[in-house]
Write a sequence for this structure.
């Protein structure tokens, strides 16, 4: 299985996003770097809109992720409810 | 009447907003409307099978991009108002930014034009919209970089005429020819070259270490534009990956063409990144990670996952890459050694690492640094300290393909410079590696056109008008520097004793003391 | 140790980049200037394009218009990417709140059926014309010469995509997605739309990028937008179709803004030489005729018996605009 990853700028907007990702993906590993947070995960990583909304107490559009996104690895599948990265084999 | 419309899902809505717009023309033949769609030999049977990687409609695009721009320019304004340039670790650091502005930012611009072309030329609506979004993002990157670095240009040398230099200066033809090569190819090759190889396989190696380096060295302006640009890169990377999958799924005949392009552009890209390797290992006063480490994380691990994934289409890891696991221990040292020797003709400052830095390099490169490079660098440093700083005033021979000076060594012998030779129409052409020779031999008609800066100097094409090379006391290097608009004694030579060094110390003194 | 950066006053070595200083002198430059002037490469190219080996990558000869300095074609709005997106984001927010209000309050249901049908028949197939506008302008962004004009053409291309998407949204607000299929069928096969589709397709095969600029941005937009987003808009507003007016507000504002930019380009290029002026005037005459032919049946559908009078008004205003630009057409 290969690793996928996603990285965000470290700031107030991304703190709850990262918290939600780590809660929803117990196999994910956090890697904190200068001004940037990278999350690595074997196989796949799922970001759920609902989980983020619970933490921030407002509606969240997954496209808002783009404002603070730095990089990703893996195939992306995005719809209204989740943003999923995966390798197919 | 119930006018309530069922809320459409993102995918469905996006399909209406993009795919639905196009049509097959009948008053004009499709091949006239899309004249570049077939000449490269790629066969596409059904553009509707294209899967959109990101689904941003223009209204959402404006909304999120404007938010990014507001944040970015707020930081840049604050940076300028508060003399943010004095917050960097050391003005040596700026050599890396000079290389970036002269070598990378103008290419963001070419990427903008090239993606506009791709965004016009594909018959499919999905890829066209994605390419156009990338095109407008790329003009953003060129401009935000110029705007961020503009403040450094006001206070430091080497930045002042970046566009003029890009087209002329010897080492800048390395990145320039890379993008010229891609843009002069057809739209599909462009997508493999820039969309896939550069954006997907290599961009992390360029941006993430660069920006982490900027963060480590107190350069808030660069961190900000860098990370802000990266947020667009994530979209660009998925476009590159989608494009390659799409080409491979459409027709089995596409595989050998795509494989050939991947081989070519992976190697072309890796050669360009030698400059980044040198930046990471030598030009950052505070280092983030070594080039070798970055290579392992972002290329071997991440690229490995990617090629595993593409294996199901029959794509193989490019053969030339086996050499990279050897090269990763050498290229940054060899490149910096070359720039140090030719520091008289570079638009940034050079230096030899101090003891502490050499120890760091030994630790990061246990197999090679002490054995091959430390003795040479120590000797050069001692010579400089004794007042014998040697600047080579000739110029090196360049590879016909990547245009890097012949400085890299044989894969099996790090003491032997690697040369390869090809013959075409009775002329001999030299390349720096098997990878570049292979590229040359496949398209000699293209690469014999290369405008090699060193050849051009020797042919007398790089002097200002009215200069007489036969006049007594003619100094060719000095005249070339004038033609480059490179101010001798300010833009070039050692950092030690430079105007940048003096000003930075003086200004920082003013900022940190009350006298 | 006290750090007090406010006390530091540093005299810069220079105020801007050399290529900007060569044009404007060494003084602080605007972001538009630094992000625009001379950033397209001009001098040395390594390889001839495989797709056009007789030319270089950025080649002045891709149009018959000639300019001593292509950067004379500056954008009066001074749009660099940041200024552009921030301006559009503001307009987008206004448009969004209009759509939301219409959707939440069900205002589309209040539009009289006759007006709603005109909107579906005329405005919705127009999204394909917009898509053609996107293609023409992305061609200029790719193959035009000099960032001063290629940059705003890309913005213009993206704007056309946005207008096409707003029109799509109007269809989805007034009706179901089936309306989009109906409109596409009208575009492909309906008698009303064939002259326009033929005209748009003819523009897609033009090679001279400045000719595209004239045919698309000056003539086609200069006649179509006033017709549909001014005159027809008034008809909607007067007849109880305010909801439609609200949904096309972006287009009205946008065409007023962009027409000023288009005018500035035409004016400068025409003033450069008699040859330029003649070439532009010839193009205007040719494409004005074709556009009017293509618009005639659509005006008929939208305005009925008043169609000729409305088209006449639009044409008179357009001719007056051209005269102000120095064109004898």
């Amino acid at each position: 299985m290969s690793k996928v990853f996603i990285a965000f700028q470290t700031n107030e907007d991304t703190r709850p996003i990262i918290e939600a990702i780590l809660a929803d993906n117990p196999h994910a590993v956090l890697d904190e770097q200068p001004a940037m947070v990278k999350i690595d995960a074997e196989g796949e990583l799922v970001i759920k809109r609902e989980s983020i909304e619970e933490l921030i107490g407002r509606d969240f559009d997954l496209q808002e992720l783009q404002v603070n996104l730095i990089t990703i690895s893996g195939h992306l599948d995005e719809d209204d409810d989740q943003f999923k990265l995966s390798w197919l084999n | 009447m119930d006018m309530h419309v069922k809320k459409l899902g993102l995918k469905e809505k996006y399909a209406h907003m993009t795919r639905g717009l196009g049509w097959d023309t009948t008053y004009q033949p499709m091949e006239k409307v899309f004249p570049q769609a077939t000449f490269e030999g790629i066969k596409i049977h059904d553009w509707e099978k294209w899967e959109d990687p990101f689904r941003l409609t223009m209204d959402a695009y404006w909304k999120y991009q404007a938010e990014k721009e507001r944040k970015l320019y707020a930081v840049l304004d604050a940076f300028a108002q508060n003399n943010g340039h004095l917050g960097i670790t050391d003005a040596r650091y700026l050599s890396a930014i000079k290389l970036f502005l002269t070598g990378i930012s103008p290419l963001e611009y070419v990427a903008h034009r090239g993606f506009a072309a791709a965004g016009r030329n594909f018959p499919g609506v999905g890829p066209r919209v994605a390419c156009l979004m990338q095109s407008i993002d790329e003009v953003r990157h060129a401009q935000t970089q110029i705007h961020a670095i503009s403040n450094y240009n006001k206070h430091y040398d080497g930045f002042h005429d970046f566009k003029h230099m890009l087209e002329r200066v010897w080492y800048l033809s390395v990145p320039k020819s890379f993008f010229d090569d891609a843009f002069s190819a057809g739209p599909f090759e462009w997508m493999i070259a820039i969309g896939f190889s550069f954006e997907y396989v290599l961009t992390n190696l360029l941006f993430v270490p660069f920006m982490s380096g900027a963060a480590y060295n107190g350069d808030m302006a660069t961190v900000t534009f860098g990370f802000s640009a990266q947020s667009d890169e994530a979209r660009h990377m998925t476009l590159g990956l989608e494009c390659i999958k799409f080409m491979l799924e459409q027709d089995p005949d596409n595989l050998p063409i795509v494989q050939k392009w991947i081989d070519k552009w992976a190697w072309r890209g890796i050669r360009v990144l030698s400059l980044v390797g040198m930046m990471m290992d030598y030009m950052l006063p505070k280092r983030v990670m070594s080039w070798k480490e970055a290579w392992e994380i972002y290329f071997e691990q991440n690229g490995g996952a990617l090629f595993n994934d593409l294996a199901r289409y029959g794509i193989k890891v490019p053969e030339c890459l086996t050499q990279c696991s050897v090269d990763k221990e050498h290229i940054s040292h060899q490149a910096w050694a070359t720039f140090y020797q030719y520091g008289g003709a570079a638009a940034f400052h050079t230096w030899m690492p101090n003891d502490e830095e050499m120890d760091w390099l030994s630790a990061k490169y246990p197999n090679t640094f002490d054995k091959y490079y430390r003795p040479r660098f120590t000797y050069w440093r001692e010579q400089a300290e004794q007042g014998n700083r040697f600047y080579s005033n000739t110029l090196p021979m360049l590879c016909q393909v990547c245009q890097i000076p012949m400085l890299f060594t044989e894969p099996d012998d790090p003491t032997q410079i690697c040369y390869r030779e090809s013959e075409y129409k009775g002329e001999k052409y030299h390349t720096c590696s098997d990878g570049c020779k292979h590229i040359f031999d496949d398209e000699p008609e293209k690469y014999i056109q290369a405008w090699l800066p060193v050849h051009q100097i020797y042919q007398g094409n790089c002097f200002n008008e009215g200069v007489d090379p036969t006049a007594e006391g003619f100094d060719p290097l000095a005249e070339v520097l004038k033609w480059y608009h490179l101010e001798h004694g300010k833009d070039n030579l050692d950092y030690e004793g430079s105007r940048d060094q003096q000003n930075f110390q003086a200004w920082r003194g003013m900022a940190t003391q009350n006298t | 140790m006290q750090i007090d950066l406010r006390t530091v006053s540093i005299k810069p070595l220079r105020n801007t980049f050399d290529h900007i200083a060569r044009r404007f002198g060494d003084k602080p430059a605007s972001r538009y200037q630094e992000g625009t002037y001379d950033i397209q490469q001009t001098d040395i190219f390594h390889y001839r394009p495989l797709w056009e080996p007789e030319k270089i990558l950025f080649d002045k000869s891709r149009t018959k218009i000639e300019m001593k300095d292509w950067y004379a074609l500056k954008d009066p709005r001074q749009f660099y990417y940041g200024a552009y997106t921030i301006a559009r984001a503001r307009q987008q927010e206004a448009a969004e709140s209009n759509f939301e209000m219409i959707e939440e309050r069900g205002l589309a249901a209040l539009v009289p059926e006759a007006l709603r049908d005109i909107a579906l028949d005329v405005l919705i197939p127009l999204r394909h014309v917009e898509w053609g506008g996107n293609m023409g302008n992305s061609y200029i962004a790719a193959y035009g010469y000099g960032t001063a004009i290629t940059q705003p053409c890309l913005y213009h291309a993206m704007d056309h995509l946005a207008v096409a998407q707003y029109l799509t949204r109007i269809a989805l607000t007034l009706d179901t997605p089936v309306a989009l299929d109906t409109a596409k069928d009208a575009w492909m096969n309906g008698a009303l739309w064939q002259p326009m589709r033929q005209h748009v397709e003819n523009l897609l095969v033009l090679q001279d990028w400045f000719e595209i600029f004239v045919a698309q941005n000056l003539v086609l937009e200069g006649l179509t937008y006033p017709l549909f987003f001014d005159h027809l808009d008034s008809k909607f507003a007067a007849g109880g179709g305010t909801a439609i007016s609200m949904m096309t507000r972006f287009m009205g504002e946008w065409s007023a803004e962009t027409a000023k930019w288009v005018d500035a380009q035409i004016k400068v290029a025409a003033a450069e030489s008699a040859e330029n002026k003649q070439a532009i005037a010839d193009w205007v005459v040719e494409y004005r005729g074709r556009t009017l032919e293509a618009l005639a049946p659509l005006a008929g559908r939208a305005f009925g018996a008043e169609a000729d009078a409305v088209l006449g008004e639009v044409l008179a205003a357009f001719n007056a605009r051209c005269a102000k630009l120095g064109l004898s057409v």
